């Protein structure tokens, strides 16, 4: 995987990676929003990234497996858990990345390690992810103490074969991002690099019972149907975050 870099917009990170993981049964749900709605929620050091003039909000449920630090094995019962995030897209120094408003996980240890190590807004949640055939039934209810409400209940499934995104397409804009940004605790930002192969995207459909992921940031999702993509599995390597230069 480390040798396959032709799909990246910029070179993969130098030095040893810190964390390995796999993502399974992932659904991208994306809605276009006015960039001005997000500007005040993003660090000044970062630019809200847009496609055809629109910023994008994403709700992304999936399951993690095999999460492990470099040189250590995965641990059953700790390394595998569901996760769901609320995100948008930003860039700095010409590098497009992901900005997370929240990440909910069904693993208290992972929540606390990610908060301490990556500075990401992780929260405890009661979650389940069950796959029967091609259909994934997913439930997440945030339980983190004194945290705002966040909840998702629904079922989703792929509806087509794998289609790799092409450079410049909306699919590439929404998915092919090889870093994340987070606060550095001093008013600036840190960048955490990741590496993986090109996303194996499939068109999808979703049946939503409850979707209350944006209340926490004071936004309502557009009434239009979301743009949907499904991925069955993606193996990922991550590097420790570094502060951006002033």
TrEMBL record:
UniProt-listed Gene3D superfamilies: Acetoacetate decarboxylase-like
Q: Which InterPro entries match?
A: ADC_dom_sf, DUF2071
Superkingdom of the source species: Bacteria
Q: Name one Pfam family in it.
A: DUF2071
PANTHER family, alphabetized: DUF2071 DOMAIN-CONTAINING PROTEIN, DUF2071 FAMILY PROTEIN
Q: Which protein are we looking at?
A: DUF2071 domain-containing protein
